[in-house]
Each structure stands twice: as structure tokens, then as C-alpha cells.
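pinging the channel bc i need a second pair of eyes. not urgent but kinda urgent?? the chain im working w is below, pasted from the shared doc
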Amino acid sequence: MGYDHFMLTIGSVEIGSPFVQAALSGYSDLPMRTIAKRLGCRFTLNEVVLDKFIMYPGKKNKRDLAMTDDMHPVGGQLMGSDPDVFAEAADVMVRAGYDVMDINFGCPVKKVLGRCRGGYMLGHPDEALAIVRNVYGAVSDRVPVTVKMRRGMDDSPEAERRFFEIFDGAFEIGVSAITVHGRTVEQRYKGPSKWEFLSTLKKYAGDRVVLGSGDLFRAEDCIRMLEQTGVDGVTIARGCIGNPWIFRECEALLAGRPKPDPPTIAEQRAVIAEHCELAREFFGDDRATRIMRKHCIRYASRHPSPKKVRRAFAEDVKTPKDWQNVFDHFYDSSVDYPAIPDDDAQLVAAGAEG
């Protein structure tokens, strides 16, 4: 196994690595994607955007579309219910510079399902394929179109039939790749991701590009999914929140090199401080403080005293000056403390998920 076997290409876009930062609602904004890129991620996806909101000018619209020259290749992900609005929004995102257009049929949040979006579409193949057809018609002459799915609404035979109707239909329309999460919509984020389904699906798909998702919290998990299922790539979601180092670890293991040492306290401080500064520049002080609190709670999982640091980030940070106080108290760059072992960091991160 190695790079020769896993040189991921999505349509006309050569990525050169099978490790993708997933679209993470409320997380994968420009600052987070910038950090991921700098630490070895070759392809990132913007957080999912509601199609109709893209059509309205304003500050939020500009933030949703924002990118930098060194961000490419980068994917944009849309969610919605109206095929015509979906296509118009996709065109806006492509004109803004996104290199891949991804369609979200996987979000399991109840509010989303109740508004006939995201995972709702897995129960309605005709509606789902109408969206794929319109988006493909609107932008496929410029960028590849991809789809994000879960393995069905639930575990019923009817849900599986509908899954394959959408899966096959989307590829027949012309999509370049489909990402499949190994949980059902009904599961949401509970229970194990069914990797055996991904293995069966990839054998069925043949040369069609399939990416896998679900339960990818460590670099070893990512390599194991590639080996066990045969998927063409993996999209790392919760596993990269507060742990952008996972991408360089994945790259090392895939190339047959030893896994890099966990980031030292000094390295952690540098990355977290840079992320905070990028967020301040992008959102302004007040909003950046609110947004970075949830990121830093996850960054704390890598600290030798994760509970204390998580509490400090959650309770003591109200202004940019407060960030500096936490850095000075817990991330003393003059002392190179050993980082928390990977297995322990994983347990802390899992606990932070609730």
C-alpha cells in the first residue's frame, strides 16, 4: 500500500492524497481550512451552506464564499430542497472559485430533515436525482460534481433500495465521486459506522470513485478504512476538529514512514494561536471568541491536562486578551511538555462529544 495506489482524483481535479477534510457544519470555515492545509491536508470542504442563503448578498454570504489563493483545490458543499435554487447556488459558488461542487444528502439533524433537506433526500430518490441533474447541468462544464450520502434512512430493505437508486442514478447523471457515511440517518452519530457496507459498496461500484466516512478519529483509523474497505479516499470529520495534525500523520503512515510524534506544547500553542488570529481577522473579535471557544475545547484534548484546559477555554475566555492568558498559563512555550498520548487524547475527544 502507498501513494501509487491512493492517488485520489475527482473528475478533473487531481488531489494526490486520499485524506479529505469533510464539510463540517459550524466548523470548517476559512480559518479552520487554512490550518488544515498548512498541516498537510490537500483537499478541504467548506462547511455546508444552505442554497437559498447563497443567493442573498451580505457579510455572511461573503464569508461562506471566502477563500484564499493557496486554498485550492477546495470543495463547496450545498444543502437544500429546490432543484432550481440548488443549481443557481451551485453556479454562484463555482463562480466564486470553488473547484468541486458537493451535494449534501447526508445531514441527519432533525431540523434539517423536517425542512426536506440533507438526509431527508435519501428517502425520496426522485427529488434527490432532480437536484443532482440540475446541479450537474449548471456547473459540470466547469467543475466536478459530487454527492455526500449516508447508507440509507435506516436499516430496512426499502431504505437500501432507495440508497442504490440514488447512488446509481447520480453516477449515471455524471457525478465524479460519492462519499458515503457508514451510519444511517436514523443513527445520527450514535453506534458504529458500518464499514462492511462500505467494503461491499466499493466492490459493487468498481472503478467509480467512492469515499468513506465514519469513525475516523485517528490516523490509524483512516489507514484501516482504506485497507479494509478499498474505498478511494476518506473524509475526516469530527476526528480533525482540534486535531489538524491528523493529516500529516495519515500521510506519513500511508507512505510507510513512522507516525510523527504528537505535537509538543509549543507546537500546539503556535497552531492554536494562529487559528485564533485567523479567526479574529476573518470574523472580528466578538464572533471569533465565540467560534474559537468550541475549537479550543477540542484542541485541549491534546494537552497533558485536558480537563483543566478545556474548562479554562470554556469558562474563562471572553476577550482576545483572555486567550493570551490561557496560552501563558497552560501553553508555556519555554517548557516543552510531553503531549498527551494518542490513545488518551482520543478518549478525551470522544468524551467531549458527549
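so Residues 265-353 form one domain. and The chain has two domains: 9-254, 265-353. — does that match what u expected or am i reading it wrong
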